[in-house]
């Protein structure tokens, strides 16, 4: 999965998830491919212990995304 993406390239964020593309990263102004590339590099570096593995990292990240999106945290975070 990771090697396939590294060879074929990463789709634009707007094609992967239109809702994710709504988030802004000012004042950092990250390029569109920075976040997906970061996730791929983190996944590549993960080992496979029973608990703190890639699935756990993804689950925690997804939960944070859901909190941010559903609780309107963008009103409180700058």
What does it look like?
The protein has 78 residues and is an all-alpha fold. It has one domain. The chain contains four helices and no strands. It has helices at 2-8, 13-16, 34-45, 54-70. It is globular. The N and C termini lie far apart (34 Å). It comes from Amphilophus citrinellus. Residues 1-78 form the PDEase domain. This is PDEase domain-containing protein.
Sum up the structure in keywords.
4 helices; mainly alpha; 78 residues; 0% strand
* Strands, count: 0
Shape: globular
Contiguous helical run count:
4
Domain unit count: 1
Which helices and strands occur, and which strands form pairs?
Blueprint: H1 2-8, H2 13-16, H3 34-45, H4 54-70
Structure summary:
By secondary structure, this protein is an all-alpha fold.
């Amino acid at each position: 999965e990771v090697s396939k993406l590294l060879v074929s390239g990463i789709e634009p964020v707007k094609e992967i998830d239109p809702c994710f593309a709504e988030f802004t990263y000012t004042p950092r102004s990250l390029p569109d491919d920075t976040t997906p590339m970061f996730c791929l590099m983190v996944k590549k570096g993960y080992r496979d212990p029973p608990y703190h593995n890639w699935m756990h990292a993804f689950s925690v990240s997804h939960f944070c995304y859901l909190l941010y999106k559903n609780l309107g945290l963008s009103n409180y975070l700058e």
